[in-house]
Amino acid sequence: MCQNGQNDVACGDDGFKCINCSTNPDDQQCVNDAMGGTCGCNDSAHCATYEACSAAHLCGVSCGGPATCHGGCCNGGSCVMGTANDSCGSNGGACTDCTIGCPGMNGDICVSGSGNYCGCGSAGDCSGCGSHNKCNQNGNTQCGS
Fold it and tell me: What is the pTM of this model?
């Protein structure tokens, strides 16, 4: 029998069987309600990778506004890995399109490493960066002059 059912390892409505939310691949947090609790989320950290927590406290691939992704980035309302040149990012927010206008004079490709970011692997990846047309200036993967 479930007591108050409002913790992550014993979640449910009063008087019914409790569920261990912490072992779910999604919705890993007990979200309290008037009857006890329901497995859900309060932020994307309680969702699987490349998912976001909705205003209804449920995990899914839809993102935008306050619903940021758990890893990757938000591209057109959906969480994605964030490793493509046209949808690059790793902080859960909006993806950056590296192929349009050399964002931040960094480069035309998505570089993976400690986070995904627009950068370069060769001078050809700096073609849209104007005078910043040399890659790996100062030992990094960004375009420079």
Answer: 0.80
